[in-house]
């Protein structure tokens, strides 16, 4: 993307916070959004192409790397890649053993996938905020597009659609195993008979219903909020020094300092999402009598 000197501060920030959206506009028909207002007007009938692309790309990278290491695994002295993968697998298994008391062979692979995938999506936040959007804008300019109308967000977890998609998937798994393990009657009993017994059914249903529905909401918003705030700080640092690709100088130093601190945040958010998934599934496997 071009320097922020060609646009106001508000336009620069808004440009970075707008997804590459493809959908059905009520006035312009089917196509890509040319502004944040266009993207908003598309509403439900739209897809954030950049979120889908980078999510699939990073998910494929995770599968390719782990599959490649698994195919070359050796019982002898392991290489660096094998050591790295074994460390991650052991780390995830330790958390599953410590937080999950049921028996389900799906939980550990799911936890590993969530941790690695969310971490990789978060890791995109460490790239210079203007680098990939600028290159993509120049590429689209060769096809006649105006770079200021070309949007691209490279961090999928700064899109609430992505975080809510993952959180709802976990939520549906929680519902599925709650009904599978406890039966429909047992699951409904949890919602209506606790904590005040059969005489407090309305209050029980309200309290337990809110508690159940808050799980995917908090799971999604926690990840989105932290990553969105981190991305905003990177954008503001770049804007402070005129925008453009910040790699050196005082702005580059500030970006580097924040990036070092941000490594802790992106790792912690992937870890929290994984642990809460394990805990929620453990609760779904517990029978209450």
UniProtKB/TrEMBL annotation:
Listed SUPFAM superfamilies: F1F0 ATP synthase subunit A
Spans traversing the lipid bilayer: 44-66, 105-124, 162-179, 232-254, 260-281
Sorted UniProt keywords: ATP synthesis, Cell membrane, CF(0), Hydrogen ion transport, Ion transport, Membrane, Transmembrane, Transmembrane helix, Transport
One term under GO cellular component: plasma membrane
Pfam family of the protein (one): ATP-synt_A
GO molecular function terms noted in the UniProt entry: proton-transporting ATP synthase activity, rotational mechanism
PROSITE patterns the record matches: ATPASE_A
InterPro entries linked to this entry: ATP_syn_F0_a_bact/chloroplast (IPR045082), ATP_synth_F0_asu (IPR000568), ATP_synth_F0_asu_AS (IPR023011), F0_ATP_A_sf (IPR035908)
Alphabetized NCBIfam families for the sequence: ATP_synt_6_or_A, PRK05815.1-1
PANTHER family: ATP SYNTHASE SUBUNIT A, CHLOROPLASTIC
Family, per entry: Belongs to the ATPase A chain family.
Protein's UniProt name: ATP synthase subunit a
